[in-house]
Amino acid sequence: MSTAKPGSQDAPAGKRIQLQLLYLKDLSVEAPHVPGILFGHPVPDLKYSVETKHKMRDKDLYDVQLEISVHATGGDKTLFLIELKQGGLFEVTGYTSEDTATILRTRAPEALYPYARELVSSLASRAGFPRLQLRTIDFEKQYAESLKEREQS
Known about the structure:
By secondary structure, the chain is α+β, with helices and mostly antiparallel strands. The protein has helices at 97-105, 107-126, 139-152, and strands spanning 16-30, 45-58, 61-74, 77-93. It has 3 helices and 4 strands.
């Protein structure tokens, strides 16, 4: 991989990463006990997951998707369940196949995550719950850890 961070201002000429299209593929919101649950419930337990997928659509054009699930429970009741698939089409040119794979697992999800994070926050609020702010994710660190785990096994 080059010493310049892929897609950065320091990327060598001829190399490019560009978000061509942002889209919402799927969205589900469930708040089965609203409005009654909004008045007096135990401190919520929040579980969430973020998965990424990518595939080539055309030469130098890749479809990258974040799949996010957020499940809040209070006691034995579901407060809300939000599931979404936020996607983007990315043009990635001038990089080796190894660098492109790294970009699709790190830089592309980094670009999509703020949109998905804001949507989750907005949906929880619209369902009557306090605004929810998901933690930031270091996709580069997660990718490096997954590579390290793969090498060890």
